[in-house]
Every structure is written in structure tokens, then in C-alpha cells.
């Protein structure tokens, strides 16, 4: 798969090359993996993805920006997915909530996830997204991603890990940081909560979350910027919530994150 070189809406030919199809269902524009398209159409015929997920008898509610649902998508094979409604955070959250300028951030998230995956950076696969136009230039959107293997965000995983497990976590986070640097990817909100640790032993993996905050600036030391952002987050967690991630561990992470010469 050739990674998209652009971060706006994907062209039809690019979507097809990456295994996606476009859907027009009940006035909304959706994009789905080709094998997930029948299930996506069925879900949209009963409302939005988020409404469909909220009605599933087997569902798990999680909190993020609003309610997030973990459900099974009835494709072949049945696939565990996470469905969320895109919402603004920070100061915009209270004013604009789930309303974005059309076409919302959903197409950008798909383009970014494809580019990151092509660079070998573990991140949730986008199974489908849907954009619902509202009043002219505004729209809402839902994104459906493949559910990650069992694990925890970095603070929760670190808190309950042994010393050996913590060292393994530092190694996989260091690998993630090196991969981001090689790809020229800067994550503007690279905090501990945006790294998800799954697996164990040799199969331990650090996944990158909230990929819509990633850019490819093309200049500047993205390796240092990503590391500095993550270190600031770690120190904040230590000061405010007592996370036992000390300076020796952060120094070890900085060493692991450096490319070998």
C-alpha cells in the first residue's frame, strides 16, 4: 500500500487502493473497508454509527470525549470495534461540541492512520467513518476503529507493572518514538494517555492514539519535540497523580528513543 501524501479528504482512487469504499446512505457520506461495507450500510440505515452502537445488546461503554462504545461489527469475521462521536476538546468543547466545519476531522484521521501504518507505527485501524451534514457548512462525524488487544494506557499499565515489565515498556515506547522520528511525524499532544500498551513479553506493543493531532512539519527536530512533550506529561503525572515514573526511567527512555548511528 502506498501511503497517502496528503492529509485532506482522500480521493476515490486512493481509497480503493487502500482497501476502502465510499458509501452514500441516508444523506451521509461514509467510508468503510470494503469487507466492512455491508455491515456499515446496515448500521447507517438504522441511524448513525454512534446510535447503532448504543443499541447493541453486547456493548461496553467507555469514557473519552463523550461516550464511546465497544461493540462487535457483524462482518466476516466478526470484528470488535470502538465507535466514537468526534467532539472538540478544550475551550471549543463547550461552545461547538460535536459540530465541525464540513467534512470534519474524520477524513484526516483516516489519511493519517494510513500514513502512520505504512511507516510501521502501530495505531488503531480505521474500519469506517461517517459524516452527517448539518446546516450548510457544518457536520458531525463518527469514527469506527478496530478495537486494540487487551491492555491499558501507559499510566495504568506502568502503575501495576513489575520492574522487568516497566523496562520492557520503556523499550517499546522508545521504539515508537524512533518510528515517529523516522516518519517525520510530530504528535502535538503526545501525553502518556495517548500511548496504549498491549501484549506481554516479546509481543508487547506501544500503540499511538489520537492520531488526528499528528502533523508532518518537514523541518525541525521532531524526535526531540516528541520526547520533550512526553517527558513533560510524565512529570505532570508524577507531580499531580503520584505516578512512579522517575527521572532515571525518563533518562532510559531518552536513550532508547535515539537512533543508533
Topology of this protein?
Elements: H1 12-17, E1 20-25, E2 28-33, H2 37-45, H3 49-54, E3 60-64, E4 66-73, E5 79-85, H4 90-96, E6 100-101, H5 106-118, E7 126-134, E8 138-146, E9 151-153, H6 154-159, H7 163-183, E10 186-187, E11 195-198, E12 205-208, E13 214-215, H8 222-241, H9 247-256
Antiparallel strand pairs: 1-2, 2-7, 3-4, 4-5, 5-8, 6-8, 7-8, 9-11, 10-13, 11-12
Report the major sheet.
8 strands, antiparallel
Radius of gyration: 19 Å
Helix/strand structural class: alpha+beta
Unreliable runs, pLDDT <50, ≥5 residues? 1-7
DSSP summary: helix tally: 9
- Report helical residue fraction: 25-40%
Helix-strand topology string: HEEHHEEEHEHEEEHHEEEEHH
Strand content: 25-35%
Mean pLDDT: 91
Q: Overall 3D geometry?
A: globular
Amino- and carboxy-terminal Cα gap: 29 Å
**How many beta-strand elements?**
13
What does this molecule look like?
- With 261 residues, the chain is of the alpha+beta class.
- The protein is built from 9 helices and 13 strands.
- A hairpin with a 1-residue loop joins strand 3 and strand 4.
- The longest helix is centred in the middle third of the chain and has 21 residues, at 163-183.
Short overview:
The protein has 261 residues and is α+β, with helices and mostly antiparallel strands. It has helices spanning 12-17, 37-45, 49-54, 90-96, 106-118, 154-159, 163-183, 222-241, 247-256, and strands at residues 20-25, 28-33, 60-64, 66-73, 79-85, 100-101, 126-134, 138-146, 151-153, 186-187, 195-198, 205-208, 214-215. It is globular and about 55 Å long.
Amino acid at each position: 500500500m502506498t501511503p497517502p501524501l496528503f492529509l485532506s479528504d482522500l480521493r476515490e482512487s486512493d481509497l480503493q487502493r487502500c482497501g476502502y469504499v465510499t458509501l452514500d446512505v441516508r444523506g451521509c457520506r461514509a467510508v468503510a473497508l470494503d469487507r466492512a461495507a455491508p455491515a456499515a450500510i446496515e448500521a447507517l440505515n438504522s441511524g448513525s454509527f454512534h446510535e447503532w452502537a448504543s443499541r447493541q445488546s453486547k456493548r461496553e461503554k467507555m469514557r473519552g470525549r463523550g461516550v464511546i462504545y465497544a461493540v462487535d461489527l457483524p462482518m466476516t469475521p466478526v470484528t470488535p470495534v470502538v465507535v466514537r462521536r468526534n467532539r472538540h476538546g478544550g475551550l471549543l468543547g463547550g461552545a461547538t461540541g460535536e459540530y465541525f466545519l464540513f467534512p470534519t476531522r474524520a477524513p484526516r484521521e483516516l489519511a493519517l492512520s494510513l500514513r502512520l501504518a505504512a511507516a510501521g507505527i502501530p495505531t488503531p485501524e480505521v474500519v469506517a467513518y461517517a459524516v452527517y451534514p448539518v446546516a450548510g457548512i457544518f457536520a458531525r462525524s463518527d469514527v469506527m476503529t478496530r478495537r486494540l488487544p487487551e491492555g491499558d494506557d501507559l499510566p495504568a499499565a506502568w502503575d501495576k507493572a513489575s520492574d522487568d515489565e516497566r523496562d520492557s515498556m520503556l523499550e517499546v515506547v522508545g521504539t515508537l518514538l524512533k518510528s515517529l522520528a523516522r516518519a517525520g511525524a510530530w504528535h502535538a499532544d503526545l501525553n502518556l494517555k495517548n500511548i496504549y500498551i498491549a501484549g506481554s513479553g516479546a509481543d508487547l506493543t506501544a500503540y499511538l492514539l489520537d492520531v488526528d493531532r499528528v502533523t508532518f512539519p518537514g523541518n525541525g527536530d521532531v524526535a526531540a519535540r516528541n520526547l520533550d512533550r512526553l517527558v513533560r506529561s510524565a512529570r505532570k503525572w508524577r507531580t499531580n497523580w503520584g505516578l512512579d515514573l522517575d527521572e532515571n526511567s525518563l533518562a532510559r527512555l531518552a536513550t532508547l528513543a535515539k537512533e543508533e548511528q
